[in-house]
Amino acid sequence: MHMLENLAAITGGLILLVWSAERFVSGAASIARHYGVSPMIIGMVIVGFGTSAPEMLVSVSASFEGNNGIALGNAYGSNIVNISVILGISALIFPIKVQSSVLKKEIPWLILVSLLSLMLLWDYSLSRLDAVVLLSVFVILMSWTIVQGMKYPQDSLAQNVDETAHKVMTFKTAIFWLMVGLLLLILSAQLLVWGAVNLAVYFGVSDLVVGLTIVAIGTSLPELASSVMAARQGAHEIALGNVLGSNLFNTLVVVGLSGIIHPFSVGREVINRDMMVMLALTLVLFVFAYGFKKPGRINRVEGVFLLLFYLTYTTWLLNPAVLRM
Questions:
Q1: Which residues are paired to 97 by β-bridges?
Q2: What are the transmembrane regions (predicted)?
Q3: By the number of CB atoms within 10 A of the CB, which of 11, 125, 190, 321 ranks highest?
Q4: Which pLDDT tens digit goes with each residue over 206-232?
């Protein structure tokens, strides 16, 4: 019965988390449109922040409770899921063309940020100074993104956002859903963390493994929903923009806030296994998206490769746990 309670908490938390994130994003995007914010900024900053809100709330909640494995596993696990599963599925539905100059500049940034986080955690600890560095880099990157959005108002990503934009709510309705969405995000994140920690104890696995698998997949559901929807509508670059924005946010803000709240030691497996897999996937994405001699495109064969990559990684991750059970 105890396991059923944990599964119910995780399932309920995830459903509420995804629904409240969508309400939060819709409210924030509508408020931004009321104030005349450009589609590029809405797409890359507001929607990117909103789809990463579940990761942020779950990791912050886990940090407050001292569950560092879930905090870190959720951030890096979500990055792995975003590239391998979300882009893999999106590419299977509709090959992703990469024409946006802004996105092409953002991929090298993601590689540099991944290398920076690896360097900061190389001593197997996340200190408050490390966290401040990560958050400072995020502020610089967001400033750069806003400048790029103003510099390239007709960029193909901006057009994609315009074409797929939700109907704008009234200002009062937008404020209401922004506040309700945020409140429910906080509550559902706490419910999910509670269930995940108890499930880890029940099966005798580390909270890191639970964070890298169940929690990471669950908190990536908003990115999956919005990317698949964008791919079906032919708005290829929103699918990629969602993943890039979310991964930058997870690496810098989610990990940074966790370190500010509760500095902690980092397991060797995080450095030697999970961060290396995350970096490898980011480099693979760079090769796929740039195309070099031809226009960048993530095709269906590459989509299958990404999905098989995730299946292999998850099998590797769970194998010791399976042997212990």
A1: 297
A2: 76-95, 107-125, 131-147, 174-193, 239-263, 275-292, 304-323
A3: 190
A4: 888 888 988 888 888 777 877 777 777
